[in-house]
Amino acid sequence: MLPANTPRSFYRDAGRIAAFRGAAGDGTAPAGGGYHPEDWVASTTARFQAAPAGLTVLPDGRPLTDAIAADPVGWLGADHVERHGADPAILVKLLDAGERLPLHVHPDGRFAASHLASPYGKAEAWVIVDAAPDAVVHLGFSRDVGSDELAGWVARQDVGEMLASTNRIPVRRGDAVFCPAGLPHAIGAGILLVEVQEPTDFSVLLEWTGFDLDGAAVGHLGLGFDEALRCVDRAAWSEARIRGLAAARPGSTTRPGVERLLPTAADGFFTAERLRPAPDAVLDPAFSVVVVTAGGGELSTGHEILPVRAGMTLLVPFGAGTCALRGRVEAVRLLR
């Protein structure tokens, strides 16, 4: 069971993480309000150019990176280590949008490899835990945007034109949305979500006016905007194509109590499952994060039985073996 890990950010929270985690009554809730809108869960990824901010420290005082390095097979499993080395290859966050996030883009793996010396870009997905009645996300451009037009918007900070050219997608509790790398996006105010992503902190800002940072200086990953904007998908995304990002695969209930949440396009990056025990949800061995979103019950492993309740974030190592979640409980499980 992990405590909160809330590095300072440049946009505001609304206290939703504190309220959500405080409901667990386990002493792990952060202070609410201000500029701590993200809880980095089981993180081996540091904030961009701000290490060690973002890295998880286990309850016993060990950095998670050190624990995994000392026993990668026990934490991750032999097959995972063979494919990815001693790297969980995902990052999970709780995110509380106290205000609309700025429009921004994450590079894909090819761009990250050639420009940022990283094997990972930043595809991501969102599972909505709570949302205001009018909550929306902005996802992709609704028409083709020329490179000069985009560069002009960014240079002038023409936020109205940029946002007017995006797709506005209403979201509600329980929705899951995949956001491919390269796609311009912004999470609207009034949303609490669980985010799973590739393990980087790479963002190219298209917008920064009114936020607590100097976007002109730091919004291009040190590449300059002429180069950084090359990672942006400027093509039009139709309504049908956008709907495909939010559609789980047909027959998404893979076994009793376990529902796959994301479209097949996410398969190469991560998996998100909703757990609703019926009567048990059986979890195969894997390094995974479980966020308990409602109710209460217990998670049993080959070694222990752990009482769980809404607001808890749990790190399950591969070595825990096959686990079972039972009770009147709902949770989200994230894994590679």
Overview of this structure, please?
By secondary structure, the chain is an alpha+beta fold. The chain has two domains: 16-245, Jelly Rolls (Sandwich), CATH 2.60.120; 253-335, Jelly Rolls (Sandwich), CATH 2.60.120.10. Helices cover 19% and strands 29% of the residues. The chain is built from ten helices and 18 strands. Strands 11, 12, 13, 14, 15, 16, 17 and 18 form an eight-stranded antiparallel sheet that branches. Strands 1-2-9-4-7 form a five-stranded antiparallel sheet, with no helix packed on it. Strands 6-5-8 form a three-stranded antiparallel sheet. The model has no long low-confidence stretch (mean pLDDT 95). InterPro entries: Carb_Metab_Reg_Kinase/Isom (IPR051804), RmlC-like_jellyroll (IPR014710), RmlC_Cupin_sf (IPR011051).
Strand content: 25-35%
Main sheet overview: 8 strands, antiparallel
Text of the CATH class of the largest domain: Mainly Beta
CATH architecture of the largest domain: Sandwich
Share of residues in helices:
10-25%
Average pLDDT, rounded to a whole number, is 95
Q: Give the CATH H-level superfamily of the largest domain.
A: Jelly Rolls
**Low-confidence regions:** none
Number of structural domains: 2
Q: What is the overall number of helices?
A: 10
What's the count of strands? 18
Radius of gyration: 19 Å
Query: SS-based structural class?
Result: alpha+beta
How far apart are the termini? 19 Å
Order of helices and strands: HEHHHEEHEEHHEEEEEHHHEEEEEEEE
Shape label: globular
CATH fold name of the largest domain: Jelly Rolls
